[in-house]
Amino acid sequence: MTDKIKVVLVDDQCLCRQGLSELLSNCYGFDVLGATGSIDELRTLLDQKPDLLIVDLRMKPLDGISLLEQLRSEGYLTPAVMLTMSDSEIDLGNAIRAGVRGYLLKDMAPDEVVDAIRRVAAGELVVAPTMTVKMIEMLRGDQPEQGPKDSFKLLTEREREILQLLSRGESNKAIALTLHISYDTVKQHVRHILNKLNLSSRVKAAVLFTKEQGMSNNEEPLTRN
Amino acid sequence: MTDKIKVVLVDDQCLCRQGLSELLSNCYGFDVLGATGSIDELRTLLDQKPDLLIVDLRMKPLDGISLLEQLRSEGYLTPAVMLTMSDSEIDLGNAIRAGVRGYLLKDMAPDEVVDAIRRVAAGELVVAPTMTVKMIEMLRGDQPEQGPKDSFKLLTEREREILQLLSRGESNKAIALTLHISYDTVKQHVRHILNKLNLSSRVKAAVLFTKEQGMSNNEEPLTRN
DNA sequence: AGCTTATTTACCCGTTTGGGTTATGCTTTA
DNA sequence: TAAAGCATAACCCAAACGGGTAAATAAGCT
Hints:
The structure is a homodimer.
Chain A (H helix, E strand, L loop, with lengths): L4 E6 L3 H12 L4 E7 L2 H8 L5 E4 L8 H10 L6 E5 L4 H9 L4 E4 L4 H12 L4 E2 L1 H12 L7 H4 L5 H10 L5 H8 L3 H15 L4 H12 L12
Parallel strand pairs in A: 1-2, 1-3, 3-4, 4-5, 5-6
The structure holds a DNA duplex.
């Protein structure tokens, strides 16, 4: 008989943490070393050499993927499963590229989750059934995905216009003045941009856009203020 | 006898605006069409076809240079004088590149200012005496300036490290976690970065850095959250 | 005539930023 | 030894931002 599977849960939402912790603790074969939303606490838990990390994707201030990348860069290579609410293929892609061994959805049935985790621990690579469809679409090149360039096509003309100003470092208020529209409208556009590009801050949007734009146009320097 | 010089003052600080307005109004040969800190009001003033704009550099939300660029792009080519507190050679450089006909300092003696404005209106290109030194230094290549690449040399190693994370879209809190230092320390570093690069927002810093970095390293995609 | 999408505006709320200031160790340089 | 620079940290405050929600108008498609 194999040893119990030692898992550590990382989620900044206390409820999910506790829920899954309960669930796994009551299942045969699991040893929940700890459940935390704090990186520092996570580090101490890692000393107990878990077999598997179960990580939430959307966390503040550091999302699951960045967290994993950081741990990897520090030498912690413990396999990880992403457990998240997001059914976005973009998130899935990012997670896979970050090397997770599983991508599970929080709305899966409890036993499905447990089963999936068990399979990952056994070495399988498990993706939530709902997501496999999206994976196939991605691979089939339905939307070649990958290239963020394509993401920009999702934006409307106006949104691209705003993204451009945003990428020049202009504040929402400044953009409003420039385009002669209200501050609230700009905010709304920015919200849409962030949603469509699946980003969470204007800085990321600006950087992404800048990279894609290429340094083709190096005209005006960024000005103070 | 020539007509009076029709000037429009643009400054978001009411005091300076009024002060200069008073000053010029009491001088022979000036016709102050208006003094405003609002862009909309400025537009209506422009209908009176001023001969000269006197613009402050540091204004919120749109700085003087951006403002000028915007006006230029709309077809208003009225000559402009920059009147500012900043004795930074970087600001001077930006202003000159933006095509201002004069760069004056707010701490110049009143009659000097008036005189300088008169000369600009007459077609001269006037730079505050204090600043000419800096101009010469710039030209002499003391710091070849220009290339923002050089600006980064002003940053310490730590600051560059933080700028890099900042340019990945990480929040101050996330950077703090990543580097295992306090949130306040990160803020302090960011402040220094913005000061040294003469920028006013992390977005500008991120974009600048991204452009300089070149898209050489396209590894990790920006992740949600 | 309905339906969808794009654009616009507004309000509320909590978090993040930017700026000012102060201060303590540590290293390097004058 | 003194001065200067760096990394660290803390506190305060006002402004900006991100997210949720709602809604009005216009244009286009079915």
